[in-house]
Structure formats: structure tokens, C-alpha cells
Amino acid sequence: MAELRRRSMRSGDEAAEPKALFGFGRSAFKKESTSVAARAVTGKSPENGQQKGQLAMNNVEPGNGNNIAAQTFTFRDLAAATKNFRSEFLLGEGGFGRVYKGFLEKSNQFVAVKQLDRNGLQGNKEFLVEVLMLSLLHHPNLVNLIGYCADGDQRLLVYEYMTLGSLEDHLLNISPDRQPLSWYTRMKIAFGAAKGLEYLHEKANPPVIYRDLKSSNILLDQDFNPKLSDFGLAKLGPIGDKIHVSSRVMGTYGYCAPEYARTGQLTLKSDVYSFGVVLLEMISGRRVIDTTKPINEQNLIAWAQPMFKDQKRFRELVDPRLHQNFPQKALNQAVAVAAMCLQEEATVRPLIADVVMALSFLSTEPVGSPAPPAVVVMDESRRSHCSRSPSHSSDDASDIHHNSSSSRSSNASYQEESD
Ligand SMILES: Nc1ncnc2c1ncn2[C@@H]1O[C@H](COP(=O)(O)OP(=O)(O)OP(=O)(O)O)[C@@H](O)[C@H]1O
Ligand SMILES: [Mg+2]
């Protein structure tokens, strides 16, 4: 029977997935990927004599040829960076483990350290996929993997620190006294997230199906530039004439495309559906699944369907916290894009490139319009970490604690696991 879970589902029996990835590594990136994988699994250095602590890999973009280095860290390095994983430095907790804010003395930078739950091989698979994917894929709208640690049975990932946390924190976890995101900030985030997805779908070769697009996986830098995170569930897309890959249903309940949830057939259009869900969350300020609402409003997509059919009702979809502060024409277009992405029939959903094109017009604020709202108190304090002296002060601690509690108490989406 399907089991409902908070947060992303772990993989259970997708034994083929790492194999497919290694194949991917061999075809597109030659030997380096397999040596990353080997080291990530065993915690040992690769045999090809690469310098310890550095992995050189080719960028996925054809013809780019950049060498990308993902560092390896010891558990000790990361314990030092997070002051022994102090609870004050906890940024949040997801389906795969906890995320802490850390500071790397050597490179003088703040980082986010994700410590995967140590429950055997399952987490290892996501760890491998994440290291491989993020080592090979590079785009301004994808989170940057600084390195990883595979020390004994410890598995940790080290990412660039995203000052403003997740879109979920700003859109869905906000208390009434905090400033909501402005319309244009929402459209800018939607545009950036769509560009990240476009890179995965149309620039990566073979294409990558992200599979876990949701508001908690869209992270924001100090200027609200979005980056997609969490590639542990990503999957290589179909090659040649095939239009889908088969897989066990994974992802987060509510964000999963209906045909994928039903059949396990995964296409690029499954990601387009999830994008539509996030876009509708941004327009409405509502969670895709919210059990605190009246029955007929608990599922955002079902609630929105009748309004999609009648342009005069589009206003009813809008987040009341925007206080009517949005351009009507842009609203009509944004709702139309969301509705197209959310179509039941996968083949008639748009390509993500079309979505990028549409959003590029909606995310440009007209000259002379009022500035977006000031960054809220929590964000200001997060922002100040970047410029302050690089120590874990008590201010840092309270800021992080505030954020983590909001993240953990959130009525997060649920995951459905089916065999
Ligand atoms: N690189 C980062 N910089 C800043 N904060 C981060 C970073 N990565 C994660 N976080 C914070 O940690 C929280 C937990 O992240 P995590 O990815 O573990 O869980 P999730 O996205 O909430 O759920 P899931 O496990 O389903 O992806 C995020 O919501 C975000 O607030
Ligand atoms: Mg996440």
C-alpha cells in the first residue's frame, strides 16, 4: 500500500539508477565520473592517480570543457566547520538528513553541510547521484556543490550557503508580521527556477529529469536569485526515440505529475507539471497540500481548476498578502502558464523552454515602479552573515535556530511511496 511520508522519498529498489549513472558518466564524461563514484562509495581515493582531495570533471555542457573541482572533506573538517553540528547551526531538516550552516576557515566561506542519515545503503544511492549530478552540471540556477565527505560510514555534502534559505521559507512558512514576497520577486524566482530546469532538460546531454522540484528545493541567494537544490532523486532522461524512462514513483506528494504517480513513467513533462505546482504556489501563497484548510481547498490544484477555466476568476487565485499589488495582465499570463503546465495530459504541457520565454517577460519590472519590499528581519540577519567577521557568533546561532524551527514546524508536503 502506498505510504505517505513527509519530505522526499528515499529510493528503495531503484538498483538500476546508479548503474545508469555510471553509464552516463562513461558516455558523456569518460572515466572521471566512475572514479568519483568509486570514491564516494568506498571513501577511498580513485585508482587513476588523481590528486587526493580534488576531482576533475568535465562540464556537462557540450563543448564547454571546463574542469570542475569538487573537494573532499574529512568528517573532522566538517565537524570543525559546524562546531560539532551544533543545534544552533541547524538550517533545516529534510527527508535525507539535517542541514547545518558551517564556516570553512581554509577558504574563508560559509557553507551548508548536509549530513545524510546513516541508515545503510539507501542514503548512499542518493549521495552518489547528488555528487555525480552536481559535479557535472553547472548553471547559475543550480546550487553549487563545494565538496563532500565519505569518511567511514559518514556521508556529507557541502554546498554553497544560500543566504535567504528556501522559497518555502519566504512563501509558505511566513508569519503574518513578515513582509510577503512582492509580485516581481515571485516572477523573478519563477523565471530563474525555469532556467535551471531548462538547462537540465535542454542543455544537459542526455537530459536530466530533476524529479523533486518543489518550493523547499528552490534556494535563494541574498538578491533572491533562485537555485535548484537536491539532485539525489534526479534521473537521466530518455535517450534516442524513447519518450519516458520507467522508475519507481519517487518525489513529493502533491508535486508529482499524475501520470508519473500512476504509472511510474517519467518524462521531462513530469518536471514541467511540478514547475506548474510551484508557480501556482507562488501566485497563490498556498501550499500544494494543506490539511489545515477546508476540505475543498486542501489540494491546491483541485481548488484552482474551476478558476483556470474562467479568466474573470483569476484574481481569486492570488495571494491576499499581495494586497492587489500585481499587474492584471501579468497575472493572466502567469496563471495561463501555470494552467498549461498542470494539464493532465503530459504531451500537451509546454516545454520548459516555452515557459522560460513566457516568464522572461513577466519577471521584468517596469522602470519607475516602486522598489520591492525590504528584506524581512530574518533575512537581514542571514544576509549579514556574509559580510560579518567569519566566526559563529551567538547572533548567527539565533538566526539559524529561528530558521530551522520554521522549517521543521512547517506543514511540509507529503511523499507517496509505491512499489
Ligand atoms: N545550500 C543551502 N543554503 C542554505 N540553506 C539550505 C541549503 N540547503 C538546504 N538549506 C535549508 O535546509 C532545509 C532542509 O533542506 P533539505 O534539502 O534537507 O530538506 P527539504 O528540501 O526541506 O526536504 P527534502 O529532503 O524533501 O528535499 C531547506 O529547506 C533550507 O531551508
Ligand atoms: Mg531539499
Automatic annotation (TrEMBL):
Q: Which Gene3D superfamilies match?
A: Phosphorylase Kinase, domain 1, Transferase(Phosphotransferase) domain 1
Asked if the keyword Phosphoprotein belongs to this entry, the reply reads yes
Which domain of life does the protein's organism represent?
A: Eukaryota
Q: Which Pfam families match?
A: Pkinase
Q: Where is this region: Disordered?
A: 40-61, 379-419
Which biological processes are named by the entry's GO terms?
innate immune response; positive regulation of defense response; regulation of innate immune response
Amino acid composition bias (Basic and acidic residues), ranges on this chain: 393-402
Q: Where is the Protein kinase domain?
A: 85-362
List where Low complexity composition bias occurs. 403-413
**Residue sites binding ATP per the record:** K114
Molecular function GO terms recorded: ATP binding; protein serine/threonine kinase activity
Q: Which UniProt keywords apply?
A: ATP-binding, Cell membrane, Kinase, Membrane, Nucleotide-binding, Phosphoprotein, Plant defense, Serine/threonine-protein kinase, Transferase
GO cellular component terms given for this protein:
plasma membrane
| Compositional bias of kind Polar residues | 45-57
Entry coiled-coil feature ranges: none
Q: What is its EC number?
A: 2.7.11.1
Q: List the subcellular locations.
A: Cell membrane
Q: What is its main location?
A: membrane
Q: What class of enzyme is it?
A: transferase
The record's listing under InterPro entries reads:
Kinase-like_dom_sf (IPR011009), Prot_kinase_dom (IPR000719), Protein_kinase_ATP_BS (IPR017441), Ser/Thr_kinase_AS (IPR008271)
Q: Which reaction does it catalyse?
A: L-seryl-[protein] + ATP = O-phospho-L-seryl-[protein] + ADP + H(+); L-threonyl-[protein] + ATP = O-phospho-L-threonyl-[protein] + ADP + H(+)
What family is it from? Answer: Belongs to the protein kinase superfamily. Ser/Thr protein kinase family.
Q: What is this protein called?
A: non-specific serine/threonine protein kinase
Organism of derivation: Dioscorea cayennensis subsp. rotundata (White Guinea yam)
Q: Which gene encodes it?
A: LOC120282936
